[in-house]
């Protein structure tokens, strides 16, 4: 759209999983104006304040402009692309040939705004025979995915909360006012809060921005959600508020679950979690009375003790009242492509080779990665490719990750910036930014309408950088994976017609099924040239459109696409994105993946933990660490590590440690005081903010702080506190291995300024 000021181009915000549609004015390679795109199918013009700051990502001072190679003394030297690709290919093939492809680990594959790199990486991994991979999901969502798998048949039976229509909306360890997590979050929250017939329930130790809007705020003691959720469930069962008809018609194994819940000592559990029993009961009754309830859990429980158990209990709340497969409730959504990890085609067990940790949705638990490296076990990991992630900063226990990375024979990092992880690499490959290439995410998590947006580049790649699709193509070629394959007939078929191409492609895979794992590169090289100039990287979406259509034919047809090619054409054409599936609420039943299409209410692996709550000893007060630190809160001034330039922040410039007025008085500190935080994992300094939303004994640091950034004087400086200098890799869930970032025992020491 053109205005007097110039041309606005459509793309999306890359700062959180909502990927709100935006229109951007680009002037002299700067993103000078950003506004919401009203035509975007889910955000419909909605934005939060952070999107205005996207130029700090695009034009950061520490953008990489050339491949780098580490010298023996640890410094970097610039090398050209051909050298980089040749050397990396040779090095990784050498490791593969000596130790096997399983010793090469892949971490990342996309952040909040970019998932195409992970798609192309599968070809590189297949060539190397790599089988183990992970990403940030394995330090937050894998426990929940595992529970979905138990209840609904498969982890990919992931549910969407229908807050737009829910009578009661419940947030457990989730602060959507800042973190979003569903479309147009602030509008929807305000709408519910202002409607006397509806209500918001928030379970959070902190009076968060969402809790301030809520009718019911259950301010639990940190880490006691299992007691709170069990008390709500106990009330539902003991006051006979469950939907017996729903349970009889749609679930198996309800009896043992109901029996266990009938035994929950509600009063004791309410006391244990620090919430009035009457409030717990009132909330349970309100939920039971509602026509519909939708619930969202997030990091406040996923990164705290009992996290996988909490996910089960959270889901039991809506299942016991039958708020499933209906408007305003929980429904199983479609997807454009899966978010979990595949393998590179090699064989992989269900546990990791060194520590035997459970692999969920193909992802190795992040907390065990150092243990899989720092050992003399013959199957240890020896090389790593890190792409679009900053694990040396974002995973628990940065110190241990630095040790582990130093022990690798080869670490390759593909990023836009010189991150904390890139600094430890043997090779760093600079990639074009998300506004300089075709991009998309597979955060397709909505129901009953689900949307997907393919974004076109707003500007040309920064000189010296390449899109990841081209990086992986070059790596695969350098490793010779396609040397024996004649792709000319495929390219020829693509020039003739899409139909002939499909036949030729299937023919090739039919005779050589092992080539399926290289499909992204094959599509890029053969279908790519027939697409708009420079859009080769979108060729992989032709394959993805085929599998999406095969998985959800009727839903895609209801969205107006008679076949996969019509879907692909619309993806390529529509700059604001498309609604690719349309469903009725009944569809949720069809998506259940249990043999009898019934929900399996009982999860035997978690039953003992549930029953054990009643006799769990009270945590003894550890005088060394009297506080619980939530390390990584989402604020208006946090955006993972996507913004590295500290100048993007308007408030909370150094990422304050929030603390209750009572604790501040005890410690003799006030807003602006500098303190030392000491934990089992390490120590760090922070600036205090006295905040009346905090409970006594609970302190909170923002997510994403402590990044190094160039300063005016030509040096660099660390801004804020890096939360994972304080976390410890051993503090994790026994089942899913997810970390307890939100529950770090800590001591706060006043720093006397001399
Ligand atoms: N502004 C902003 N938004 C973001 C991001 C960002 O960096 N900045 N990151 C995005 C990403 S990657 C994610 S995963 C989401 C995460 O989104 P959220 O999970 O909503 O974010 P957090 O603030 O980490 O944690 C949510 C809440 O958990 C509470 N909490 C702490 N301990 C406990 C506890 O023991 N029990 C309970 N019940 N609650 C507890 C905290 O007080 C906090 O209010 O946000 C996304 N959105
Ligand atoms: N203590 C503590 N730790 C946490 C959390 C917490 O709450 N507390 N939150 C956790 C959560 S939920 C998450 S999701 C993780 C997030 O942590 P990570 O998964 O490490 O990811 P991001 O911080 O989102 O960083 C994304 C990386 O991608 C790079 N990048 C940006 N654009 C591109 C591109 O186009 N291509 C490539 N190749 N790279 C690009 C950025 O420079 C950055 O290095 O952090 C986790 N860490
Ligand atoms: S909610 Fe805010 S940060 Fe998230 S995508 Fe939308 S504008 Fe960006
Ligand atoms: Mo996340």
From TrEMBL:
One of its GO terms (cellular component) is membrane. SUPFAM superfamilies: ADC-like, Formate dehydrogenase/DMSO reductase, domains 1-3. Residues 6-62 form the 4Fe-4S Mo/W bis-MGD-type domain. SMART domains: Molybdop_Fe4S4. The keyword Ribonucleoprotein does not apply. PROSITE patterns: 4FE4S_MOW_BIS_MGD, MOLYBDOPTERIN_PROK_1. One of its GO terms (biological process) is cellular respiration. Pfam families: Molybdop_Fe4S4 (PF04879), Molybdopterin (PF00384), Molydop_binding (PF01568). It comes from the Bacteria. Keywords: 4Fe-4S, Iron, Iron-sulfur, Metal-binding, Oxidoreductase. GO terms for molecular function: 4 iron, 4 sulfur cluster binding; metal ion binding; molybdopterin cofactor binding; oxidoreductase activity. This is Molybdopterin-dependent oxidoreductase. It comes from Polyangium jinanense.
């Amino acid at each position: 759209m053109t205005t007097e000021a110039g041309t606005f181009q459509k793309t999306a915000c890359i700062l959180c999983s909502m990927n709100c549609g935006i229109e951007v004015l680009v002037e002299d390679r700067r993103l000078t104006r950003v506004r919401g795109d009203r035509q975007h199918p889910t955000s419909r013009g909605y934005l939060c304040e952070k999107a205005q700051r996207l130029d700090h990502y695009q034009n950061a001072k520490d953008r990489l402009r050339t491949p780098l190679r580490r010298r023996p003394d640890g410094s970097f030297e610039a090398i050209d692309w051909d050298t980089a690709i040749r050397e990396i290919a040779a090095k990784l093939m050498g490791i593969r040939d000596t130790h096997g492809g399983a010793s090469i680990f892949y971490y990342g594959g996309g952040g909040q705004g970019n998932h195409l790199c992970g798609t192309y990486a599968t070809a590189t991994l297949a060539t190397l025979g790599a089988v183990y991979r992970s990403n940030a999901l394995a330090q937050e969502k894998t426990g929940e995915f595992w529970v979905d798998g138990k209840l609904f048949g498969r982890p990919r039976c992931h549910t969407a909360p229908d807050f737009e229509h829910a009578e009661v909306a419940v947030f457990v360890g989730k602060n959507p006012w800042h973190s979003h997590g569903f479309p147009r979050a602030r509008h929807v929250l305000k709408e519910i809060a202002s409607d006397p017939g509806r209500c918001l329930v928030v379970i959070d130790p902190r009076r968060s921005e969402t809790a301030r809007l809520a009718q019911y705020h259950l301010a639990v003691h940190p880490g006691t959600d299992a007691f709170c959720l069990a008390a709500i469930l106990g009330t539902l069962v003991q006051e006979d508020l469950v939907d017996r008809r729903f349970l009889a018609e749609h679930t198996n194994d309800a009896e043992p679950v109901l029996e266990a819940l009938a035994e929950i000592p509600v009063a004791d559990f309410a006391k244990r979690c620090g919430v009035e029993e009457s409030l717990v009961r009132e909330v349970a009754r309100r939920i039971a009375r509602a026509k519909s309830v939708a619930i969202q859990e997030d990091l406040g429980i996923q990164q705290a003790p009992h996290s996988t158990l909490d996910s089960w209990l959270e889901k039991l709340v809506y299942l016991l009242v039958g708020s499933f497969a209906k408007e305003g409730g929980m429904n199983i959504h479609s997807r454009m492509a899966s978010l979990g990890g595949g393998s590179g085609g090699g064989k992989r067990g269900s546990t990791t080779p060194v520590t035997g940790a459970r692999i969920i949705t193909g992802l190795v638990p992040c907390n065990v990665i150092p243990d899989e490296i720092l050992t003399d076990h013959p199957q240890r990991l020896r090389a790593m490719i890190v792409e679009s992630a900053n694990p040396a900063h974002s995973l628990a226990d940065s110190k241990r990750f630095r040790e582990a990375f130093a022990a690798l024979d080869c670490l390759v990092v593909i990023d836009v910036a010189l991150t904390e992880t890139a600094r430890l690499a043997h090779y760093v490959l600079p990639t074009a930014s998300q506004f300089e290439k075709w991009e998309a995410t597979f955060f397709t998590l909505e129901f009953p309408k689900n949307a997907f947006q393919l974004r076109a580049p707003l500007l040309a790649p920064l000189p010296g950088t390449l899109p990841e699709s081209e990086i992986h193509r070059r790596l695969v070629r350098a490793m010779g994976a396609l040397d024996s394959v004649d792709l000319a007939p495929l390219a020829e078929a693509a020039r003739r017609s899409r139909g002939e191409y499909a036949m030729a492609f299937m023919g090739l895979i039919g005779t050589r099924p092992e080539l399926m794992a290289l499909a992204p590169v094959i599509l890029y090289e053969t279908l790519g040239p027939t697409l708009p100039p420079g859009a080769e990287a979108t060729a992989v979406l032709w394959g993805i459109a085929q599998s999406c259509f095969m998985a959800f034919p009727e839903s895609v047809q209801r969205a107006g696409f008679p076949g996969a090619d019509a879907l692909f054409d619309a993806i390529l054409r529509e700059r604001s994105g498309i609604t690719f599936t349309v469903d009725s609420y009944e569809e949720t039943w069809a998506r259940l993946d249990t043999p009898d299409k019934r929900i399996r209410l009982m999860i035997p692996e978690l039953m003992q933990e549930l029953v054990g709550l009643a006799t769990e000893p009270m945590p003894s007060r550890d005088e060394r660490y009297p506080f619980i630190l939530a390390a990584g809160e989402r604020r208006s001034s946090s955006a993972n590590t996507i913004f590295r330039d500290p100048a993007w922040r308007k408030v909370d410039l150094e990422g304050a440690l929030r603390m209750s007025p009572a604790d501040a008085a005890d410690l003799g500190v006030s807003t602006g005081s500098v303190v030392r935080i000491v934990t089992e994992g390490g120590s760090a300094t922070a600036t205090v903010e006295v905040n009346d939303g905090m409970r006594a004994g609970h302190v909170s640091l923002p997510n994403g702080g402590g990044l190094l950034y160039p300063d005016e004087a030509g040096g660099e400086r660390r801004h804020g506190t890096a939360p994972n200098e304080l976390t410890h890799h051993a503090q994790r869930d026994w089942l899913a291995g997810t970390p307890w970032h939100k529950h770090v025992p800590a001591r706060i020491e006043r720093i006397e300024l001399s």
